[in-house]
Amino acid sequence: MILWLLLFFLVIAISFVMAYRSMRDFQFIPQKTGLEYGLFLIRNPNAITAEFLIDLSNKILQKNLSLSFERLFKGPQSALVVFGPKEQLMAISSHLNLLELEDYSLKIDENQISAWELGLKDLSQKEFLLENPFAILAELQTSEQFWWQVSLKLDSSKENLDKNKFLTQIRCVFSSADDRRRSELTSKLVGIGAPALVKVPKPFTSEKILEFYRKRILSMEKINPSLSAKEVLKVVALS
Question: N- to C-terminal Cα distance for the chain?
Fold first, then answer.
C-alpha cells in the first residue's frame, strides 16, 4: 500500500514539474479593458491585402489591442471572420463589408472537440513555406466543423521592430459527434501548415485550449511564428 502511495505522489510530482516547465515562458497578453470587442463576418475578403494589414497594425496593434482572423469550415462551406475592438474595426474596415455576429465558439459541445496549437517547426528557417493548407478539409461532413484562428501582435523585438512583422498565435478546433472520425481526422488535421508549422506539445486539454481560443489572447512563446504581412495572408489562406 505504501509503495502505491509513493508511486502516486511521484507521478503527481513529475506532472507538476512538466507543467511548470511548459508554463515557464508562457505569458498571456490580456485584452485591454474599457473597449467593446466584436466578431464580424468579412463579406469582402479579397479586400484584405498586405498594405491593409500594415495599416491595421498601425491603428490597432500598436495600441496593444487584441486582433484575430478566423477561418470557419462546416462541411463544404467556409467563412472568414475578424475579432477586434468594434470602434477601430468599423472606422478602418468599411470596404470589408463587415457583418457583426454572435460568438460561434460558445455554441459547441465541448465533449465533441479536439483542439491544439501550432508553432514553427524550425526557428532558424529563413522562408515560411505554406502550401494550400486547407485542402484536406474537403473530407469534412456537413455536421463537422473546423476552426482556424490566427491572433496577431506586432513583433517589437529589436531585429523586427521596423519590418512590419507580426507575432502570430495559431489555434485549431475540430468538432465531430463521431468519436472514431474525430480521432482519425484530427490525426490528419494536425498536419495542416506543414512543413512550416507543427503541433505544439502542451499539458493542456482540448477544453482548455478552447477556452484560450474564446478569449482570443496570445501566449508569448519562442515558437510563435514572426511573419510578414504577406506571410500572414498565406496563413489565413488569402493569397
Answer: 62
Residues in the chain: 239
**Is the backbone peptide bond immediately before 195 cis, with ω within 30 degrees of 0?**
yes
Q: 68-74 and 77-85 as β-strands: parallel, antiparallel, unpaired?
A: antiparallel
pTM of the predicted protein model: 0.82
pLDDT tens-digit map of 35-80: 899 999 999 999 999 998 888 888 887 777 889 999 999 998 999 9
Cell of 183: 480521432
| Ranges of H-type helices in 93-228 | 179-189, 206-215
* DSSP alpha helix (H) spans, the chain: 2-23, 50-59, 86-92, 179-189, 206-215, 229-235
Q: Give the whole-angstrom CA distance, residue 218 versus residue 66.
A: 9
Distance, in Å, from the CA atom of 232 to the CA atom of 239, rounded to the nearest integer, reads 9
CA 49 to each of CA 151, 193, 233, 234, 239: distance values in angstroms, whole numbers, following the listed order: 17, 21, 8, 11, 9
Those residues whose C-beta lies under 8 Å from the C-beta of residue 68, and which sit 6 or more positions away, are 82, 83, 84, 149, 150, 151, 152, 216
How far is CA 160 from each of CA 68, 163, 164, rounded to the nearest angstrom?
20, 5, 7
